[in-house]
Structure formats: structure tokens, C-alpha cells
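Consider this:
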Amino acid sequence: MIEKSIQSCRGTVYYWTNEIVPLQKFAIVFCHGLTADHTLFDKQVEYLANEYKLITWDYPLHGKSRPYEGFTFTNVNEELLTILNQENIDKIFLVGQSAGGFIAQSFIQEFEDKVLGFIGVGTTPFGKNYYKKSELFWIKHYSTIAKMYPYSYYCKASAKASTRTDEARENMYKTLVGLGKKDMLKAANAVYSEFLKVRDEVQFKCPVLITYGEYDNTGYVRKYNNSWAEKTGYSLKIIRNASHNANYDNYSEFNDLLTSFVQSNI
């Protein structure tokens, strides 16, 4: 994967891509979760880089894409569109893990004609009808609560809570340590503030696959995903022996699901 970047008045955004499939007309774009970075998808890159055009990125306020001013979902959509234009990519599959699913859903709302399919990994749907006010309270005050904990404890606890394997846990822990407490709080506040503004559910015109880990105990992820699938009829797959970062915990099973989904929709 080759590191590249784009520049706007808001900051520099970094992304990584491969150059081995020049004739491929689409790319698979991976959107990491809150306070993670592009390395969350290292196992997908290892498995797929010889077969598909891939784009991983540190979306604004994460990883190398700091500092960044003016975070909104609309501005993040614009950054991703600029990346696609720079790479001459017209169509994409979007994979969004946790809050990366918010980024993906927002992009689909604005640029649905560019998206061939969406895979959610431990994410939750847009649309206020899925959420109780008491559940949204914790999202609204996440940064306030997180601020109370010593950051060393927060990093270890968060990494442990979101993973099941040692390798996945180490990846998440290193990312959190590298982010730092100040930027972790800034990212969390920015992403969740934008999420709380969204009222309308995405009306997907592309195929959708919802997934979450068998042992994902993050918030109400399992409840929301089950409701999402039941309401819409979207395919739901539970990834065995995996927690919130299911694509890293059980990358073998997730990679098979991803490959099958892409092959079925091109």
C-alpha cells in the first residue's frame, strides 16, 4: 500500500492505496471506527491487495489526519470524494466499522450513485427511530465521561473491551496511545455531535450487509443491528469468536464474507 494525501483548507487527510489493479473500475474503501485508524483493516489489506483496488484512510481527526478544523460529516464526505477523484475511482464498496459506519452512511446519503454496496461492522443505523433518549444520553456525554479516566487506564480498558484476540487488542491499544487523550476527546466529541444531528435513516439503493461480533458488548450494538435487519430485511451475519473489532478478531471469517459480498454485487 502506498501512502498518499490530499489537502484542503481544513487540513491534510492521509490515505493508503495499491496500484496493482489499474483496469479495475471500482475500489473497496474502508472506514475505521472512532479513535482507531487505517491499520484496523490491515488483515483485509493483506488478504485482498492482490485482487482488488483498496483504499484505507485516516479520516479527519484520526491517525495522521490531524490537525483538522471544521469536522462535519459533509466535509468528511468531501474529503473522501476528493480521494476518489484523485485515484480516478467512480464506484466503490464501502466498509464501515463502528463510527466508520456513520461516515459511510453519510457518504451514501450524499453520493449514493457512487456506491455499489455497504458492509457495516459493529456499526449502527442512522435514524432516530432506532434509539431511546436514555441510550442517546450516553452518546451525547461520552467525552465528558471518558475525560474522567486516566488515559493509560482508558487505553487498556477500551482496547480490551473492543477486541477478543491479543493481536487485535494490541492494534487498538497502540492506536489509542498514539492518538493521545486530547485528540481522543476531540474526535469523540466531533463524531458523536455529528451523529446526534442525523434524523433520517439512509434509504439504501445498494446492497447492504450488516455484521457484528458474537461477543460484541459495545453499547447496544447487537440490539440495534438486530432491529435494523428485522426492519429492513438486510442480510445480517454474526461473526464468530469476535468482539467489536470483528474484522480484526476473526479476519478469516470476515474476509470470506467481504469477498463473497463483493463478488455477488459487481
Summary: The domain at 2-264 is CATH 3.40.50.1820 (Rossmann fold). The CA atoms of residues 111 and 218 lie 29 Å apart.
